[in-house]
Write a structure and sequence with these properties.
alpha/beta, homodimer, 36% helix, seven-stranded mixed sheet, globular, 9 strands, 212 residues, two-stranded antiparallel sheet
Amino acid sequence: MHAVIPFAIENPKTRLAGVLEPLERERLARAMLADVLEATERAGATPTVVTTRPLEADEAVDVPTVVDDRPLTAAVNGALEQRVPEYPREGVAVVMADLALATPDALETLFSTDGDVVIAPGRGGGTNALVVRHPDFRVDYHGASYLDHRNRSRAVGATLETVDSFRLSTDIDEPADLVEVLLHTDGRARRTLEEVGLELSISEGRVGVERR
Amino acid sequence: MHAVIPFAIENPKTRLAGVLEPLERERLARAMLADVLEATERAGATPTVVTTRPLEADEAVDVPTVVDDRPLTAAVNGALEQRVPEYPREGVAVVMADLALATPDALETLFSTDGDVVIAPGRGGGTNALVVRHPDFRVDYHGASYLDHRNRSRAVGATLETVDSFRLSTDIDEPADLVEVLLHTDGRARRTLEEVGLELSISEGRVGVERR
């Protein structure tokens, strides 16, 4: 299975600005990318990172990268257009780079589920990861992409399946999402949060994060 | 598998007060309970509802109910204390009544996973559903119950497993959670939201709910 991992380098994770400085957000974004790449490879897939600009030496990852400075939807569709015809049967996966909770098991379930289009829904109507095995299917990440992708599958005559995974449903966008990283992972993303001094805070029965 | 479904009748779902009137919140809570009961039975388990006071005739559910007006943790521990020794091998499940996205498949995975304690984590460190097969394990739903339950399992020498389910991770507490009901279910809870006039709203790429 070939897996495309889109990665926007500039000013990542702006919704975490309340708890992390710009350099810390960049560091977290790269740590999550590395975690996702490792889980993807351990799930038996071959990842390519599609970045908005060339990675610097200190950002280098140990997998092929392709530079495409178009917005997410266009860049992913470019990759699908090129690669789905090459791998019509096993398909091409697209996995978001901020799925810090992704495990090899969760991704393997996604990769091995039959269907022309297989979606791991994100919270709030997103599409956090998917597999495409139909040459005419294209993504649109704007708005409720899960609904759009359902409609597009129908429109091109592609069967659609979903996989039920808490881990794949959790993309890391907001401070509350960092709670999940601290609770459910032990990869680079979690170590990064710990190194910058974030820890779980529990008060009035609610769980959040705070600086040590 | 025996399944305990705790249900607090008084003033349910207060965090939905911004979008639903008190009577609408009660109606949603009962609809979710009915959906959870149906999914539990279709997953092959036998549910008992543990309510804080007797159900009125118009609230009646088609399964046995037990009245226990203690807080959630004490009521569940009372049920575990009584029932786990009766079913030591298959265990006793505890499923929250607001898991509107629960499907028979998701619950069957939970029920059939081996372990002295098997947890379906909720977002934010909660414990949305679990199976208990160890006589000394007790719950504590306050705070980050997922962490507490992990520690308690260790303390009593019980093995702990988790199941990875977006559907079971989604309890319906806040307005944003209603988006998931409208996107991913077609049960009574969704019909209730549609009947009171709530629908998805998509603006600026964000998905929410609004009154028609």
